[in-house]
Each structure stands twice: as structure tokens, then as C-alpha cells.
Amino acid sequence: MSEAFDLIVIGAGPGGYVCAIRAAQLGLKVACVESRETLGCTCLNIGCIPSKALLHSSENFHAASATFKDHGVLIEGVKLDLARMQARKAEVVSANVKGVEFLFKKNAITWLKGTGRIAGPGQVEVAGTRYGAKSIVIATGSESVPLPGVTVDEKTIVTSTGGLALDRVPGHLVVIGGGYIGLELGSVWRRLGAEVTVIEFLDRLVPTMDAEVAKAFQRILGKQGLKFRLSTKVTAARSGNDGVSLTIEPAKGGAAEELKADVVLLAIGRRAFTAGLGLAEAGVALDARGRVQTDGRYATSIAGIYAIGDAIEGPMLAHKAEDEGVALAEILAGQAGHVNYGAIPGVVYTWPEVASVGRTEEELKAAGIAFTVGKFPFTANGRARAMGDTDGFVKILADSTTDRVLGAHIIGPDAGTLIAELVTAMEFGASAEDVARICHAHPSLSEAVKEAALAAEGRAIHI
Predict the structure, then answer these.
(1) What tens digit of pLDDT does each residue of 95-121 get?
(2) What is this structure's pTM?
(3) Where do the domains of the chain lie?
(4) Least enclosed by CB within 10 Å: which of 17, 216, 231, 352?
């Protein structure tokens, strides 16, 4: 056996690399296994970071060609240089992954390059070499969920990986799946000129989010030109020289029809990536969905083996994985690591953005919890008017008895930033009144949060 470590983390995504760094800060001798040529796994290389780069670039293109004139900025002959846009995306990715590599060197973390496999108790094999470890963390992330009858080639039928790397704007992009990934990438290509049709099996978009927000979201995206086929399923896809022919039919049964597309984006969700890790041989238990089973302290069924992030139960979000990585590292170092799963935000980075934390109205009603609702529209916010971004609203749900904030939902400009205040409020057990009594700068978008909190008590000022 080669070198031994206190901790070996398998996977260098947001959960894995953060776990490794925090453990090293706490004095552990750490190694991290990663098979890619660069660190950062899906998120930094082919997920969160490149998608946000394209989202921002496409927003700039749309503004220059469509909305700057409303501000008195006239630009003639706006043209799209997609090759440069994609090159910039690559530059952003490169800067981020090199940053993680720098942090590994700074914290004396050993990068074990290759595919990792648990070879026995306290042993990880990488590229034919075995390494010892007191503790092993599975942080292997997730992969795109396949759909029977739809064969991905990453050219005309693509996952998010291929959807981020198209070298020309498709005439017609069909997105299968009305969740975060599909709507973000659909928005990118719609802004750049594609006709976009979103097919969703359920009768609404973003099914985990508040229903009122989802309804408003669909209406706003529809105004931007996206088309929707809800309660619809795809049963087959055939690629040819003239694009892709999809067979679709009503989700609850009915006549099938054909839908033509230049490119099809398959985005029906993600699943835990656990194949090839030797988990069955090691005796590590998985649940019915193929996720690693863990207890409240991230321990698996086998002593000394732990798991975090997309590989275990919970929302598949990079920041959730990061917090779990920190918590686990602290637990392994003898501290009291903790994650509050009731205060993890989710954000869809379209424009306007959609952000959510805590419970929805539907969840509170199902649980029989009495609550009050405070809402404030961005049409009544001075800063939003000045920006020309007045679509959407802030919605706060508070306990009817204690006034404690139970959930918050925002659709509007910079919602992903605005939600942080309400995440903090929930983390500290604040009431809607607590939020309402905080002095918010004027004029700012955050005043809409204050007004929504006031509205929960029926005393909003500006509506």
C-alpha cells in the first residue's frame, strides 16, 4: 500500500473539495480523488459556472439588442459572436478550476488523479495504487437522468453538457423537462434567437417551488417567447439529417403527435453517481433511488465511510453539498458540524430570477399549519422601476401564532441575492416583524423584502 491519509475524499466537486479544504484547515492529512483533468467536477466544469457565464452573456446580448433603447442607449447592428461567447465561458471555467487547484496547494491537499474505488476497509484504489485512509468520503455528485426512447449523442440530442457547448444557435430547441436546468438553458438560447419549446410531464413548471410563483414564472417566460407543452410526455426521439423528430403524447393518455426540433435538450433531472465505486463489494447500503444511505452525521452503513452532496438524499444543490462538506470535516475533527436543511435556498438563474427557501403554501396547508402571507410586487418598488425590471414579487409566509418566518419566495430582479436576507432570518428564527423593522437602504430592491414582511402584518406602506 502507498501513502496513508487521515481522510480521502472521492470527488472534487463543491462538496468534495470544500470538505477536503476544511479538513486540512483542521489539521487532517487529506487527499482528494478526481478523474478529470481539472478540479471542480460537474459544477465548475460543465454545470453551475459555465451556465451562469452563458446566462449573463445572453442577458447582455438581449439587453443590447432589445432593451437598452428604453434607457436611451441606441446600438445599431448588434451582432452575436457565439464563438467569443463560448470562449469567454471557457475562460471563466478555467479561472475557477485553477482557483481550486491553488487552494489544494495552499492547504497541502494531495490530488490523487484518476478514478477512485473503495478497495476494502480504509483503502481507496486510484489508477492501480492503493492508499490508506482513516476516513473515506463519497462526494461523487450526480449525472443526468436518461429517458427511455431518447438516446443522447451530445450533438443533436444533448444533456446540459452538450447544451452548454453548441456552436450555433438552433432554429428550434426542444427542452424536455421544466426544472431549473432546462429553463435556464432554454432562456439562454431563446435570448440568442432560438425558438424554444419546453415539454413537461407534470401540469406546471418547477414543481418543488411555490405554485403561485411557478404560475407567474411561466407567464413571464411566455412573454419572453418560450412555449410550453405541459402534461405531456416524450416517448421516442429519432435523429436524422434534418434534426430530431420527437414523438409526444398527453401524460394521461391520448393521441401521439410528432414534433420537429433542430436540437433536443434532455433535462428531466439528475441522479446520484455511484457506479464503479465498489460500494456493493464494500457493503455500503444504497436506497431505492441509488443514493448512499447515511445517518444524521453522514456515516454510511460501513464504519469509516461517509457520503455527502448529490450522492445522498436531499436537494441536489452545490451549496447544500458545500455545507455538508464543512459539517462532515468538522465532525471528523471532533467538532459539532451541522446543516439546517430547513434554510437551504434554491435559485433559478433566469431573468427574472426565481428564489425560494423554506416551506411553500402548499406544504404548510398539507401540514395543517396556520400562516399569514405577505406579498409585495416589484411594480411598486422604486429601484425596480428605475431599472425597468418590474416583473415579479416577494412573498413571505409566517406562522400565524408566532410570526416566525416559515418560507420565502421571490420572483424578480436579483432574487438569488435578495433571498439571502430571508435565509439569514430563518436561520436565526426571526419573525416577519423582525425583518420589517430592519432599516433597508433606499432606493433598493431589498425594500421589497421589507414591504413583504410588513404586508404579512397587513401594514405595507407602498401598496
Answers:
(1) 999 999 999 999 999 999 999 999 988
(2) 0.95
(3) 4-144+271-339, 157-268, 343-455
(4) 231
